[in-house]
Amino acid sequence: xxxxxxxxxxxxxxxxxxxxxxxxxxxxxxxxxxxxxxxxxxxxxxxxxxxxxxxxxxxxxxxxxxxxxxxxxxxxxxxxxxxxxxx
Length: 87
Description:
Blueprint (H helix, E strand, L loop, with lengths): L4 H39 L4 H37 L3
Helix pairs in contact: 1-2
């Protein structure tokens, strides 16, 4: 039994998009978390920078993911219009 890529292509493409969005969000949050952790340890504060930077990571990650979603939907709309023959 072989995997039929042509039959499962839309499903695989959607899975890859969701994975990309999830990893982007997690990456932004973790990056900001570790910056906050470093600042807290360096400055001797007790978690204020972790909280602030984690919140900034969530907001920044949300903005980046939103922009990626807009870009993906615009590409799909452009592909649909080019398939229809409408320019």
